[in-house]
């Protein structure tokens, strides 16, 4: 019990306290993209669907945005594709995918020779287009993501300094060549409680444009902007999301966040 009290206090401090403004060097004109990641090939071909937009469809793949975002990172870090190898049965692909997602997304990427091989396909986009049912089965249910204990952060206000720290951390991770999963929300408005994965950025004196993969939109990247002067994030271009200020947090960056 004491351990969880300490962790809870630490999280509250992380989520709500100001820790200074974003460093000046982030205001310089510069940018970076995660090496080896391409939106057209390294993302899922099928979307997370929005239940409110399809109220009459009982078979929606809805509320799986957290599952897909985590899975995207795990495939990028722990899987490799071998298009020249013979294809497997759907059941065998389920086992391969489960081996990929059994690894924690914050673990260091595996070297090529140690990665889980996905035979018969060249990219995640191709694989997920052809083996959609097997992938959805292997990726698992949504309840654990929806009830993830770190999601409490959406209910708390944040300071400009805290959001500046989040922006700084995202830039540092992207500079280091790592994908960054973001929890984005405009709660208490029930319009956006969602996750995206940042894979590139362009920083200027006014702020930072983060290029993101949105699980709801396989067709094109989205944009989340950090507005430097206001110390806030802004939903600049997210699928079916109104333009406006949001709060953002890093997600699955450690076992407790």
Measured by DSSP, the beta-strand proportion falls in 15-25%
Would you count the extended β strands for me?
9
How many separate helices?
7
Compressed to H and E, one letter per element, the order equals HEHEHEHHHHEEEEEE
Total discrete domains: 2
How would you explain this protein's 3D organization?
- This protein is α+β, with helices and mostly antiparallel strands and 257 residues long.
- The chain folds into 2 domains: 17-35 and 152-250, no CATH class; 51-146, no CATH class.
- The protein contains 7 helices and 9 strands.
- The two termini are 19 Å apart.
- Mean pLDDT is 86; it is low at 1-25.
Topology:
Layout: H1 2-16, E1 30-33, H2 65-78, E2 79-82, H3 90-101, E3 116-119, H4 124-130, H5 132-139, H6 143-146, H7 160-175, E4 180-185, E5 193-203, E6 207-213, E7 222-227, E8 232-237, E9 244-250
Parallel strand pairs: 2-3
Antiparallel strand pairs: 1-5, 4-5, 4-9, 5-6, 6-7, 7-8, 8-9
Give descriptors for this structure.
about 260 residues; alpha+beta; two-stranded parallel sheet; 7 helices; disordered N terminus
Summarize the structure.
The chain is α+β, with helices and mostly antiparallel strands and 257 residues long.
């Amino acid at each position: 019990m004491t351990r969880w009290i300490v962790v809870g206090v630490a999280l509250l401090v992380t989520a709500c306290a100001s820790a200074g403004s974003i460093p000046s060097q982030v205001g310089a004109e510069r940018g970076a993209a995660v090496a080896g990641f391409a939106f057209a090939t390294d993302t899922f071909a099928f979307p997370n669907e929005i239940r409110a937009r399809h109220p009459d469809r009982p078979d929606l793949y809805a509320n799986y945005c957290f599952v897909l975002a985590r899975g995207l990172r795990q495939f990028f870090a722990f899987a490799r594709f071998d298009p020249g190898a013979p294809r497997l049965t759907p059941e065998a692909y389920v086992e391969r995918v489960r081996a990929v997602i059994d690894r924690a997304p914050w673990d260091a990427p595996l070297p090529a020779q140690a990665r889980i091989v996905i035979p018969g396909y060249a990219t995640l986009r191709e694989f997920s287009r052809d083996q959609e049912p097997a992938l959805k089965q292997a990726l698992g249910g949504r309840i654990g993501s929806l009830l993830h204990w770190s999601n409490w952060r959406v209910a708390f206000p944040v300071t400009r300094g805290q959001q500046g720290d989040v922006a700084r951390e995202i830039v540092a991770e992207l500079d280091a060549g790592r994908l960054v999963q973001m929890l984005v929300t405009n709660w208490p408005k029930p319009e956006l409680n969602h996750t995206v994965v940042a894979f590139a950025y362009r920083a200027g004196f006014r702020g930072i444009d983060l290029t993101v993969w949105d699980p709801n939109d396989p067709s094109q990247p989205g944009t989340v902007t950090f507005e430097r002067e206001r110390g806030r994030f802004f939903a600049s271009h997210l699928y079916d999301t109104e333009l406006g200020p949001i709060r953002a947090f890093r997600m699955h960056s450690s076992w407790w966040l």
